[in-house]
SDR family NAD(P)-dependent oxidoreductase
Amino acid sequence: MASSQNVALVTGASKGIGAAAASALVKAGYAVVGTSRSASKAKPIDGVTFIDLDVASESSVQNAIAHVMSVYGRIDVLVNNAGIGSSGAAEESSTEQAQQIFDINVFGVIRLTNAVLPIMRAQRSGRIVNLSSVLGIIPQPYMAVYAATKHAIEGYSESLDHELREFGVRVALVQPAYTNTAFEANSVRADQPLPVYAERRRVFEEFMADAVKQGDDPAVVAKAIVAAATDKNPKVRYAGSSRTASVSTMRRLVPVRMFDQQLRKLNKLPA
């Protein structure tokens, strides 16, 4: 039996941005299903039902979607939030490690999206909100693999949105900047570190730890996610931070050479 409420499915909802988004969607009137790889260990959130889901597993995705449909009979919003960070020079990550990161950050989004699209097309309505990043629009030295996943999500999401509009389904991107979560602490370190990059990597990790500590509250990003999920005429991109809005404007208006110089200065790289 279909739920009397609209239903939102939020991946990676046990902490950080995902937890804040799940809570905010409850307040916006949704029946919210949050996912975690270990739902039994997730901290309870009022109004949120947790289920197990590993976005890197096709069978796990299919089982989770089947469960949601058996209980609620509909899925109105999918928030693809689950992801993993990574750091280190690009050369320091093996191909296998890069594939694992893409399997979560990119193919995880594709798995969930493909699983819910037949449902949303049949409903002739639905909203897919994909978590990108400010690093989906700018480069970030010593986070090349992670930035590549977010650039991929940008291209995938915008293209998909054009395909789905005729079916009443829209896709939106939310682009957080540095957010005060456990992101940096939980990021994957490069699996084949090289001495030649050691000092630059150390400087970057100090910079990133401080940036995350001073970052936005997850509630700021959650507000953008709710807007992306509920706006009658959604934008393709929502800045999940005032920093993202500023950087996006700079990327468009500042001369390439000047932007390049500022990026290197910010990252304490030689001119």
About this structure: The beta strands are 7-10, 31-36, 48-52, 77-80, 86-87, 126-131, 169-175, 188-189, 237-239. DSSP finds ten helices and nine strands in the chain. The first strand starts at residue 7 and ends at 10.
